[in-house]
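tool_call: predict_structure(chain=1)
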Amino acid sequence: MTLRDFLKLTTPVKGSVRAQWVGRREQTARNGKPFLRVELADETERVSLNMFSGSPAYEYFTGGEVGECIELSGVFGPSDYGPNVDGPSARALKPAEVEAFFAGGEERRAQIEGHWDFCLQRARDMQDPRLRWVCLRALEKFSEKWKRAAAARKNHHARRGGLLDHTAQMLKVAKVLAPLYSEVDGDLLAAGVIFHDLGKLWENDTGERGFGSVASRRGELIGHISLGIEVANALWREGEGAEGKSWSELKPASEELRDHLLHLIASHHGTKEFGSPVAPKTPEAFLLHHIDNMDAKIEMLRLSYARGKEEGSGLLEAHRPLEGPLPWPLSGKVVPPGEGSP
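tool_result:
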């Protein structure tokens, strides 16, 4: 059973789930007894559970270390306070089990490689040699981080490899929309998609052995937009040094093209209220912001569908920050989170 399977349960089921322990918070119940708020993550979901004193699992989580990979057993099901496990017990996974756990399922590995190949091919297809060079360099230089970083910590694509899921799907949307607007440079828009969340390779890195995005000093002090601008600028200067005179002869001027790429990173949140230092001011910037927002919202809907928690007749609990309850899609088609469109 995966954590997503757990969240979809409507009746209690005895079983076990393997996950990484990514957070612990000590709390006190109204009756004065201590309990732990434990966060678990796997390749499908991130879940918070209460572990009450007196259970074998409470003893395990009190003495263990955050970051361990564990098997949690008990009776899993819903409660008035969210997902719950009755009679929980926990054990650490053996080394061979840990290796298999981080390798992920065959289907997920295929998804990641498919998204990765698509992103690389889109960069190779760029006509402008400068955008092609910096995009390929950004992908290949940080390839391991790309394949494990999350796109967010809670709301959307908040899983190992989620940033790659998000980027690949945005590239597909951008490829369709760009030709519909003659003002839009399709290569520049695609480069903006690749670079817009580049800073999350550090802000939302799960680490080599992790499923939960772990806060880092660099990510917290600088933030992914500023980090993205910093890294994009450094890669651009690296490209100028490697390509020499050939870049200086291209039109538009390299400095102008660089500024437009940096603007896409800086403005992709849409407004200063939501963290962008500047608002969108170019055709590519407006499209990038809305493609980003659209893919995030569709992912939130898919998470709601995947969890399948009913609030009323035919209505589902919404994944925050969406407002609910939500109806099932009229098409009847439900795509699992992370898979994108065919």
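agent: The chain has two domains: 3-99, 105-299. Proceeding to next step.
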